[in-house]
Amino acid sequence: MPFLFQRPHAAYAYPAFHDPPALAPDVARVPEHVWNALRLPAQERVALAIARNAGDSTDSASGLPSITCWGVLDRDLKDVSVPRRWQIEYPKIFPSGEASTAGPTHSVTAVQPVVLSEVIFAALSDEAYACASADTDTFEEWLLAGDLVFREEATYTWAREVDGSSVSLSPSLQYKLVMAAPVRQEATSEDNIPTIPDGDLDGQLEPDASGSEAGEFEIGEDFLAGSVLRTLSLTSPPGTPPNGALPNGVTSGATHTNTGLHLAQPERTYKAHPLQRHISACEDECAVYVRTSELSRIGVLDGDWAVIRSDKETNFRLARVHARDDVATNAGLYLSPQLVHNLQSQAGLNWNHDICIRPSPFGSRRPTIPTAKTVTIARVASAFSTDRTYQPLFLQALQSYFKDTTRLVKQGDVIAVGINTDDVLRRYNVSEEEDTEEGQEDLDLDINPSGEHNELVYFLITNVEHSVPSRLGDVSSPDMYVGATVGELGCWVDPSATRMVQTGIEHSRVPDMARYLSITQRVLPPEDVIPDQDTAFGKLLALASAALNRRAVDYHLQLSILLQGPRGCGKATTATWVAQRLGIHLLEVDCYDVIGDTDAKTEGTLQARFERAASCSPCILLLRHIDAFAQSTQALEPGKEPAVGEVLRDCIAGLQPSWNLTGFPVLLFGTTDSHERVPPKILSCFKHEVVFEAPGETERHAILLSALANCTLAPDVSVKDLAVQTAALVAADLVDLVNRAKAAAIQRSLDTSSSDAYSVFYSGVPLTAADFDLALGKARASYSESIGAPKIPSVSWDDVGGLAHVKADILDTIHLPLEHPELFADGLKQRSGVLLYGPPGTGKTLIAKAVATSCALNFFSVKGPELLNMYIGESEANVRRVFQRARDARPRHGPDRQSIAG
Questions:
Q1: CA 718, 721, 725, 731 torsion: positive or negative?
Q2: Average of per-residue pLDDT values in the chain
Q3: Phi, psi of 733 (to 5 degrees)
Q4: 633: domain CATH number?
C-alpha cells in the first residue's frame, strides 16, 4: 500500500547542459523552483533520478531507465543543468538536437541511495589491474572519496598520486563497471560502501573509435558544386532507377538525361531503417537521419533539405537531413515508419525498403513550396475510426497533430495519431445526435490531447488545394518550378492559413506505428525482414500477401485459414504480427462471446461481426476458439451439426461484394486447440490449415529475446542457455517465465535494500541468472502438478552405486548412437527404448537421470497412476498428451535418439 499512496514528488523540466571539470562527480544543478517543487530541505545535496517523461520513454534494454546523480541547489539557473557528456553517454535519455519549445521533457525525482551489495570492476589495462591489486585500500578510498555514481558500463579513471607530489591522469588507469547488485546504478557515499571483489575480467577493453566519427570525409568538387549548382529532374523512366542507383549508398557514374536536363548531383541509394522511437515530434515526418560520414557522400550539410523517393517509385518528397550518430547506428537512412509508408504505393508488400536521395536546391533554407489553402482529410476505416464513441478522441488527436506547427504533406499521405480510449469514460458523454459522420466539419486547432496512448487511428489526405507561388526564391530550374507548383514536392500546412476539412471514410493500408508512438504491445514482432517460409509466421505471411495482390479480387480468392495448435503457442500473436507486417487492421472476436441464448441470436451476432470487419477492410477477422461453435444451447438431433456452420459459410461468401467495392479483402483466421473438436461443416469453411507446434530451441531463443526486449539483463544471464533449459514450453509459458523472473528480481532488490521501492526502481533492477533459476523452478513445479515439464537433470554416474552391467547396456543402447551415428547410416535398426524393471528403491529412476545428464537429454518423469482417470477416454488422452509433450521436448535437429530419456 505505501507503494500506491506514498509516491515521491516529481518536478518536470527541460534539461540544460554544462561542462563540469575533468574527473568531477556527476552532479545536476537544480533551479530553485524545481527544488521547491520536490519539497527538499535546504541541505547541501540530495540524490536525484532524472528520466524522460512517459510519452518519451524508451526501452530500458538499450539504456538506463533513468539517471541517478547528486543534485545541488543553484538559484541562478532556470532549468536543470546536467553534464554535457551525458548526451553522448546516454543518448536515449538525453537526445541531442531536441528543441525546448515542446515543453518539459524530463521528470526529476528525489530518491534514497540504494546500498550496493556487490560491484564488479574490470581493469582496462594491465597497469590498472596491477595498481588496484597492489593497493586495494587506496583504490576503495578513491571510489568513495569522490562521491562517484556507480553505473553499469561506465568507465572511471583513477587520478592516482605518485610519490605524494603529483597526480597521474593516465588513461591507462581506467576501470569499467561490469555489474552492480541489486540495482544497476547508485550514488555512493560512506554509508553504502560496496564490495569490490578481486580479479580481472578478460576481454573487457576500451571500445575502439570506430564508427562514423572515425570515417573519412570525402569532400570533392561534386560536393562543393552541389551547393550552388543544383538542377533537378522530377521524372524518371518507369521501372528503372535513375542514374543506375545501386544499394548501400553506391551510385553509378552515368548521367541521367531527361528533356535535355543534366543532374549535377546523382542519386544515392540507401537501405531504409524505420525508426523505433520518435526523435522529434515536429520534424520526424519530413526528416532523414544519417551518419555524419554520409553527409559528404550525399552532398549535403547537417540541416539541408534533400529530395527522396523509393527506388521503385517516382513519388518525390522533400526531407531534411540530420546527422545523428546516436540514431543512425548502422549504414542507411533512418526515417519514421509513416514517411517510409508514404513513399511507396505498394506499402507493406515490399519489406526491403531502399530509398534514393539527392540534394535539393534549397540548402538549409525553408523550401519555397506553396502553402495549402484547404486540406481534406478522411478517416481510414478501422475498428476505432468507425466507432462513434471514439470520434471526439481521434478528432482531438488530429487537431493536436497540426496545432502550433507547420507540417509538410502531400496528397495521398497517411497520418497516424494515438488516442487513449480510457478518456471516453472520464471525459466524454457522446450521444448519437452529436455524430457528424455524414457531414463535414472544419477543424479548429485549439485542443490538447491527454493521457497515454493505447490505440491508433489513421487519416488519409484526399485533397490539397493550393495557389501557384509567383516565385521560388533563387531556384531557376524549370523542373523544380513545375514540381513545386503542382505539389510534386508537397505543400506546407499552416494552422493559421490552412483550412482543414475532415469528411468521409477511406480504405487504405497503414504503417505499423505502435512501437514508434510508444504504444504497449503484447510481444514485439520479429525483426526478420524475410521470415522463414517453414515457420507458421512465414506461411501465414505468404498466404495473406497473395490475397492482398491487386489482381486477387479477379480470381475470387476467399482466404480462410485455420490456426491449429496447443493453447499458448502464439496463434493470436502470430496473426497480430502478420497484420502489422502487411499494414492491415486486426479485429479479434472470441467465439464464446458470439454464442447467444438461441441459435438465432448466435447467427445474428456472427453476421454483425462479419459486417464490421467488412467496413474495416483491409482487415484480418480473427475468430478465437472456433471450436466453441460445436456447443449449442438448443438440443440437436443425433448426428446433426449446429446450424452456425451454414451461417459461417454464408458470411464468408458475403465478403466478396465488399472486396469488389473497396478493393481490399477481409482475411478470415480461426484458432482452435485441436481440429478434432471442430465440427466438420465448420472445418470445411477454411481453405487452409496452419499447424503450430511447440517451439524448438532456436524458436524459443527468438521468443525469449522478444519477451526480454524491454528488460535489462545482468552479464551472468545467457538467453541461449535459457532456451536450452525451457524445452517443451510454448510461447505463453516463456512469457510467463519472464514475468516470474521480473517478480523475483523486484523481490530480491527490495529484500536486499533498505530503500523505498521507488528508489530501487529508478536505479534500475536487472534480471540475474538467479532470478531465472528461481522462476524456472516455480514454473516447472506448477507444470508438474498436471503432466510435468521436461528438464535436464543434474545426476552423475558417481551418484549411482554399483549396477555396472546395467550402465554398460544402457550406454550401448543410447550413448553409442549419439556418438557414432555413422554406424547406423546403412539402415541398421536402433532400439526404440529400454525397459528398466526391478523392486522399488533399486535405482531405476536414478539411472535414467544419470543417462539424461551424461547425454544432455531432457528428462521427463511421469508416474503411471497419475495418468489414470475415472472418466471414459481421459486416461488415454493423458497418455497421448504425455507422449506429445515428450515429442515437443526433443531437439529439432539431429537424430531422433536425442529426444528424451525417461
A1: positive
A2: 76
A3: -65, -40
A4: 3.40.50.300
Range of the domain at 182: 118-187
Which cell goes with 80?
A: 536543470
β-bridge mates for residue 121, sequence order: 177
Q: How many domains does the chain have?
A: 7
Could you tell me the pLDDT band of residue 797, with boundaries at 50, 70 and 90?
confident
The answer on 770 and 845 residing in a single domain is: no
Asked if residue 464 is part of any domain, the answer here is: yes
CB-CB contact of 270 with 331 (8 Å): yes
The per-residue pLDDT for range 254-286, each reduced to its tens digit, is 333 333 333 446 789 999 988 888 787 778 889
Q: Is residue 214 part of a domain?
A: no
Would 543 be classed as within a structural domain?
yes
Share of the chain above pLDDT 90, in %: 14
Domain end residue (candidates: 332, 359, 386): 359
pLDDT the model gives residue 2: 47
Predicted TM-score of the model (pTM): 0.73
Query: Which residue blocks in 428-535 are alpha helix, DSSP H?
Result: 478-485
Residue type, 498: T
User: Phi, psi (5° rounding) for residue 148?
Assistant: -70, 165
Do the domain assignments include residue 197? no
412-453 residue pLDDT tens: 999 999 888 877 766 544 444 444 444 444 444 444 445 578
| Residues 687 and 704 placed together within one structural domain of the fold | no
User: Which of 200-209, 244-253, 851-860, 868-877 is predicted most confidently?
Assistant: 868-877
- Which strand (E) or helix (H) includes residue 586? strand 585-590
The Cα-based distances of 723 to 26, 86, 694, 772 in angstroms read 39, 36, 13, 12
Main-chain phi, psi angles of 419, to 5 degrees: -130, 160
Confidence at residue 167, expressed as pLDDT on a 0 to 100 scale? 46
Supply angle C-alpha 631, 632, 638, rounded to 5. 95
Instruction: Name the burial class of residue 699, with classes exposed (0-12), middle (13-18) and buried (19+) by CB atoms within 10 angstroms of its CB.
Output: buried
- HSE on the CB side for 742, CA within 13 Å? 14
> What is the distance between the alpha carbons of residues 480 and 489, in angstroms, rounded to a whole number?
9
**Ramachandran category for residue 556: left, alpha or beta (phi over 0 → left; psi -120 to 50 → alpha):** left
Which of 407, 384, 500 is closest to 446 using CA atoms? 500
Q: Is 121 helix (H, G, I), strand (E, B) or coil?
A: strand
